[in-house]
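Protocol step 4 of 6: structure prediction from sequence.
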Amino acid sequence: MPKKELSHNVIKNFTLDELFDIYIKKYLDNIDLNDDNNFIHKEFIHLLEKSLIKNTLEKTSYNKIRAAKILGINRNSLHKKVVELSIECKSRKNK
């Protein structure tokens, strides 16, 4: 499924909480809530955490110390999450 990007003009009209609410309602409308194999909480936490870490690393040019500080976690915890979530970290030297 191709990624859809929202324009900055659309996003700036909503708080992060409102965007989450809109997306989650839309997501729940499109899945079978009677399926006991849906692990929605686990899936959302995984995807949110992965996206947050990946995008923070990209914004900091993969400076893990700076990214960890922005995220409010220590560098070792960030490294562990990068490995657990299979996040590809580009070398800062290649940038």
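Step 5 (inspection) to follow. The domain at 8-32+39-94 is CATH 1.10.10.60 (Arc Repressor Mutant, subunit A).
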